[in-house]
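Amino acid chain
________________
===
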Amino acid sequence: MSCAFLQFASQADLVTAITVRIAHSLTAAIGKRGCASLAVSGGTTPMPMFEALSRVDLEWDKVVVFLVDERWVAVSEKDSNENLVGTHLLKNKAAAAGFIGMKTAAVNASGSEKECAERLKGIPTPYDVMVLGMGGDGHTASLFPGAEKLPAAVNMTSGRICMAISPATAAHERMTLTLPAILNTREIIIHISGADKRKVYEKAISGGLLQEMPVRYILRQEKVPVTVYWAP
């Protein structure tokens, strides 16, 4: 199973294409199973896509949106992915969608793995669409190179849906979907922008150890179709 790479001339063209693709997949899922699930990532890259998707006319009341990962900060803080999704996606027509967040009242993520997993178990699997980002270090979700718990988080036989993880090179403890949870998905979209991310992507597909650039665990697997969307 190969990874498809789609290149667009502008951010506007990319946003249009990725929005159409996600909407089509969600609509198809609703038609087949009566419901759909959409996992999304944080950061600035998906914001225009969230805004466009929020205005798409589909049966949002049959869609559940959830997070690929979350920084362990208050939901009211700007670094919160839940805050980002609430601000830019769960409005307009998409206000009718369900949402399942990762952040709990626990002081740290490691003390909340069980509660977070229980929340996520309510979402039918395989998930329908998962939108991932990619960092300049090759991380995706919160699977960071060098993180102490990375080996556990990418263990395909762990039976774990989510795991607390502390990046060695980024702020905040995180909760992340594990690799087996990420790959328990019908389709994966990787959304990246800019010349620097293109170089990171090219490096990721050129060889090297998986753990050095954890996005390689997604790009090189044979279980789930992956499409990369990129614009300058």
In short: The first strand starts at residue 3 and ends at 7. The mean pLDDT is 97.
